[in-house]
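Q: Can I see a sequence and its folded structure?
A: Here is a first one.
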Amino acid sequence: MIKYPTMKKVTEYSKSRNRDTANQGMALEDMINKTNEYYLQHDIAFINKRPTSIKVIKTSDKYKISEAVFLAPSTLDYVGICDGHYLDFEAKETASKKGFPKNNIALHQINAMKAIIKQKGITFAIIFLRAFNEIYLLDGQVLIEEYNNNKTIIPYEDIKQFGTLIKEGYFTPVDYIKVVKEKYFER
């Protein structure tokens, strides 16, 4: 089980834990990673998944990490550049039919978005609503405002109203750069 934040123990995955919740977010990240490979191969953008900073304490057979500690809280999931614009964004996934639970994003991630906006970078969240099989780009400023209200969830209707639906591209599972260019570059 991974315990967070900094310097807490990370131990092997508990078999009693529900695998759906353990791998939540991985489907979206896999789709984004495949999309990013396409973007790189076709000189569209250079976007990388930011690794989580850990220190390995113990390994088991075949170099499997059995114990580790987080060195620092991570910021956002992805960082990169497209057409000279700095991009930094988070990928989130939920099965909720009501919307996006705000406890799925940490305060240090909201603070990272604030700092990026202050430096005139582009920041957003890509949110996969599995219940509707829809993926939205939600601007960082909108996410910050929603995070600061008293609700526990960003309602589905708000995501539809303030977010932008990302469609699957011909060669890309999540063609988010098309939305980024329309939303941020063509102002």
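Q: Show me another, different protein.
A: A second, unrelated one:
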Amino acid sequence: MKQIYKLNTKILEDSETFFSFYEKLSEKRRQKIDSYRMKKDKMLSLGAGILIDKGLKNFGLREANVRIAEGTYGKPYFPDYPDIHFNVSHSEKMALAVFADVEVGCDIEYIDSIDLKLAERFFCKSEYRFIMEHQKQERKEAFYRIWTIKESFMKAVGSGLMLPMDKFYIKIGNHIQLEQQYNNEAYGVEDWKEGEYHAALCWNKGKKVMI
């Protein structure tokens, strides 16, 4: 079971709308929103809170009444509801959240300029080659496909950026293949373009099948 939620924070530019959602969230989320100086960041943080609240409603819960803790590397989870897994991501004006009954990670990125030297340095050689095999005008989208999938995997396993990006690799063909030695688990992956954004989702499929 996976449920995906998306929100364009443009709707929060109106102050009345902003505070109508703000007042319904937990004190912890409101403090996080207040800690940001830029309005854009406040709206993204509020957007994430709105989506968490929306996902929890399906379980008869509300964000304002549920404890959220963080793992060793910062991945959020519900300590009182270990069977409900979720993850959030946001970029520019889009917030994304996913709820599942297994460990899950998601990432969304605004498609902006890219630094191919960054890809060459931190991506696996095969991933960098995949990007460079595209026509120049298509390399940006290829870069963000790799980037969001890798981010979603790191968030799914809860390692964050502590897991070097060249220690697992993504192969994109007719299907997306994720090869990793981080653990003995198998992972499912999907990605999609969302207007000016690219997003990806990664979830745990259980133990690897040894042949």
